[in-house]
Amino acid sequence: MSNSSLVLPGLPSQRLYFLDWVRIIAFFLLILYHVGMYYVEWGWHVKSSHASSAIQPLMMLTSPWRLSLLFFISGVASAFMLEKIATGKFLRSRSLRLLLPLIFGMYIVVPPQAYLEVVEKLAYAGSYNEFMQLYLHRFRGFKIEGKVLDLPTWNHLWFVSYLWVYSVLLWFWLAYKPAWFQAARSCLQKQMKGWRILVFPAAYLAMVRMGLLSSFPPNNGLTGDWYNHACYLFIFTFGALVANSSTFWQELAAMRWLALRIAACGWLFLIIYFNIDYPEAPKWLLMLQRCVWVCMGWSAIIAACGYAKEYLNVDSPARRYLTQAVFPVYILHQTYIVIMAHSMKPLALPALTEGILLIALTAATCFFSYEIIRRVSFLRPLFGLDIGFAYKPRSLSPG
């Protein structure tokens, strides 16, 4: 993103600081979520001896919407960036901000996650250097839960690869068919008012989930991931199309309470559904669950943005600092969680103590690392930052 805050065209005094805050909060929820993945029964890279279903309802609170929210905000940010700079510069900037950290992450940041996964699940006895030789040579001999472990891997950085692809598609659309983009923007903004904001996107997402999820379950591998693309590309594009509509953002604030109630009811339904013990859910109930999933997720996005518009549309030194820090923290956080969780196992701490300590240590090491990264010129672009040491009020960069 450029070095200025998002400004609505024609409304220079109305800045979208609230979306910075939503993005900051959403990314930091990932720390809590990925620490939680260590303690639930769902599959993950490493697992605690305390793993159970106890906190799965809390995990379900954000599962349907946290990544969709990030893609939505990324679409908004990309649209504003394209309105400020030429399309060619946009593509170069986006590629440097996303592809360089992705490649660096895949070969430097992420490998410890894969190494500790094979150590814990396959009792791999080789050293890290020996594992890295296999990693770099695309070894296919590690099989976990019936699946071959793909090496090299991007693990949690899959979001960055998807974001780059979607940014390229948006660039292509604006570079070659700008009139089509403006027509789509005008049409959508006329329709997205009142109840339509809640119903129309949710209806599309429900049809996609009912029609594609079984045939194309998410794989986060970019290719063949048709369900994820049908959802995330739509939400990213939706964000780009509504970005400059002051009416749209006012509508979100007006319907925040309704959206919050819908999301809360959806969350309760999902908790009940996933705690019913039956051999196989009837087809109609499965389809209902999928509809509720997307309704809950989309309503939560509307509520989050609406409440932020009403109460967090303010600038501060904290916003400027965290806007800079959030992407490096995102790149590093899961590797730190995996390393520290594995290292703490011999201590045999109680689950609550261990979990709180893991969250605190992850946050501390991430921000300590950021303080180093932002001061070292050659490290900054590897983590999506501008070259050079500066405190600039950037907004929604790089996602």
UniProtKB/TrEMBL annotation:
Record keywords, A-Z: Acyltransferase, Membrane, Transferase, Transmembrane, Transmembrane helix
An MF annotation (GO) of this entry: acyltransferase activity
InterPro entries referenced in this protein's UniProt entry, alphabetically: Acyl_transf_3_dom, Glucan_succinyl_AcylTrfase
Sequence intervals crossing the membrane: 21-40, 67-86, 98-116, 157-176, 197-214, 226-245, 257-275, 287-309, 321-341, 347-370
Span of domain Acyltransferase: 17-368
UniProt feature coiled coil, ranges: none
Record flagged with keyword Transmembrane: yes
Name used for this protein in its record: Acyltransferase family protein
Organism whose genome encodes this protein: Undibacterium umbellatum
